[in-house]
Amino acid sequence: MGMRFAVDAMFGRLARWLRMSGYDTLYDVELKDGRLIMMAKEEGRVLLTRDRDAYGRAVKEGVRAVFISSTDFREQLRQMEELGVIFRETPEHARCPYCNKELVRADKKDIKAKVPERVGEAYDKFWTCEGCGRVYWHGGHWKNIMETLRSIRKDG
Predict the structure, then answer these.
(1) 142 class by beta-carbon count within 10 Å (0-12 exposed, 13-18 middle, 19+ buried)
(2) Phi and psi of 143, rounded to 5°?
(3) Is there a contact between 23 and 9 (Cβ–Cβ < 8 Å)?
(4) Could you tell me the strand order of the sheet in which 135-137 lies?
(5) Phi, psi at residue 52, to the nearest 5°?
(6) How far apart, in whole angstroms, are the C-alpha atoms of residue 81 and residue 103?
(7) Which of 32, 40, 84, 132 is surrounded by the most beta carbons within 10 Å?
(8) Residue 114 · residue 72 · CB < 8 Å
(9) For the segment 103-148, what is each residue's pLDDT rounded down to a tens digit?
(10) Rounded-to-integer distance, Cα 19 and Cα 95, Å
(11) Cα dist from 23 to 3, 37, 69, 93, 108, whole Å
């Protein structure tokens, strides 16, 4: 993925969606604005913020920053798509929404003990996080993502 992001504490849900679409996304509610801006600059990340002061400081520091004014999640997704973000509808190139590490394809027999029995029976494709070990599959959560994306694209 091309763009990398640094997301302020107000956008946890957006950070998870960016990660699930494969974008390397720095998100930590403990990070203060100054540290987040510095890390964005050092790591070549785009800062996403709703804090006008942080946005102004980032721009002054030469950091590419995007001010997101809307509190409506669907509107935030729409604004990100206008920036060129491609929200993916499958876990193929995803990152872990919790720890930001890449997901890798897992063999069904290797994860069988880590998922509910009904999931193991219903799905054939699985991915595991290289960092925290969580297991993912193309289930109901991904279907909800697809529905949300279709609705914002239809409305926009």
Answers:
(1) middle
(2) -65, -40
(3) no
(4) 103-106, 126-129, 135-137
(5) -60, -40
(6) 23
(7) 40
(8) no
(9) 999 999 999 899 999 999 999 999 999 999 999 998 877 778 778 8
(10) 5
(11) 7, 18, 21, 9, 26
- 39: tokens are 């890390």
Instruction: Find out whether 105 and 90 touch, Cβ atoms under 8 Å.
Output: no
In terms of Cα–Cα distance, which of 103, 130, 126 is closest to 113? Answer: 126
Q: What is the mean pLDDT of the chain?
A: 92
In the chain, where are the structural domains located? 5-82, 94-137
Select 5-82's CATH number: 3.40.1130, 3.40.50, 3.90.1530, 3.30.160. 3.40.50
Q: What is the pTM of this model?
A: 0.90
